[in-house]
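Lab notebook, bench 4. Still working through the backlog of constructs that have no structural model yet. Next entry is a single chain of 203 residues. Request: give me the structure tokens for it.
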Amino acid sequence: WSKYLSYILGNSLYATATVISSYLLGLGLGSWIIARLRYHWRPFLMYGFIQVVVGIYGAISLALFDGTQGLIKPLYETFHGHSSLFLFLLFLIFFTLITLPVILMGMTLPLLSGALKNKNFEEQGGFLYALNTSGAVVGSLAIAYWVIPSAGLRLSSWLIGGTDVAIGALILIYFFARPQRSPPPPIKSVKSPRVPGLLFFIA
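Model written out:
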């Protein structure tokens, strides 16, 4: 997103500031919202659906950015003499487009951590946080040094979005394939983290 927005906004500084501010707000809002929901007793079901939605959004995100051209042109014609105001309006447009899926991303870690309430939270919660952080590091390096140079921006967005959809689908299959109790113990969802843990790392 930062790379693509740098072409639209004309400066990588503006693009980076837009993406980072969107992520900081979106992750915080996502965590806050899911906390208000009191962690439903099917965290993997919610997580799977969130991953699918985020993946679809990621796959079509560049097309959404392109679609703003019909809005940007009249804004430029109206505010071309006020560059600061014009840039601020562009910031609001892309800030909103990015923040929406990031809110969902912000729900994932606290959603799964919430399933560990009073169930060895320190150990399992730390494990989930380590997976989340290390996966982000590996993903950032891979996208910058391998995926985008090899596949280009648009194909990369499709590949990454498709990967998220596949992860969400696998999580849903994993959830529905397991025998369910009423209600199922939340800790069982994360106590054996081999398959879901690997998927969470990739996500």
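Notes after review: The two ends are 17 Å apart (CA to CA). Residues 183-193 have pLDDT under 50 and may be disordered. Flag for follow-up if needed.
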